[in-house]
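Our preliminary data section would be incomplete without showing what the modeling component actually yields. Below, a chain of 289 amino acids is followed by its predicted structure, encoded as tokens that our downstream tools consume directly.
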Amino acid sequence: MPSHPRPTVRRRRLGAELKRLREKAGVSMEDAAERIGGDKPKISRQENGRQGVSKLEIEALLELYRVSDDRLRTALTTLAREGRRKGWWAQYGDILPAGFQEGLSIESDAVRILAFQSMLVPGLLQTAEYATEVIRCADKDAPQEKRASYVEVRKARQEIFTRDNPPQYLCLLDEAALRREVGGPAVMSAQLEKILEVNRPPKLTIQVVPFSQGWHAGADGSFNIYSYPDLMDLDVVTLEYLDGALYLEEDKSVSHYQLAFDELRACALSTRQSMELVSSVQRQFTKRA
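Predicted structure:
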């Protein structure tokens, strides 16, 4: 029996909209399957995002669902086409686990990323030297060539900020992430200098949750919230753990983390105060370097 991998963001969005249109039109899964020469399980997989939909199938289904909106038809056809497009990370497919590649897909497609990091500077903001040390500590047995490839991936991820339509990025850092020494004082000094350089509100905003705050809504760990454009309006929360990541998409779960993020931002320093603290800590590392 063929396996159907975890759906990509594009396929989930497409499938959710096809299901909505089918139900709105009062069409059964059996009738939809008959229209495209398939079966009910195939329609189920497509609506769950676990199987792609061809251009001809899209056109046949939209005709069956009596969708006349040209803008919607074009958007869905584009989603179907992009769902088959390989991401830039495909060239690293021999070293990147499938789950991590899915995380890159989620990140690449987002128009807004809300990040809370309790322990480390997030990958999208890391210098090469800082990333090298994080990767070395995470996988001490990995050969040097593999570690170097992981650093390349981390650098490539950061190119989302230089593309034509970069996502809005709001990162909340626990003060511990600024002070935890990774790679030595010189590496930390350069890393904090980068944070000062890239902070450009409102498109890329970094704020710090200070130690003085005490317990806060992020005490249980780091998380990211990804938001997407258009009428599908699907948000995804990612939680990283030791050897993988958990993806949350249910409205209740997403709302829980959105509320936590709002609470964290309310207790964070302002952007100006945050940069003053980053600069102060950076100077301390510079003196020791």
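The domain at 94-288 is CATH 3.30.870 (Endonuclease; Chain A). The first helix runs from residue 9 to 25. Preliminary results of this kind motivate Aim 1 of the renewal.
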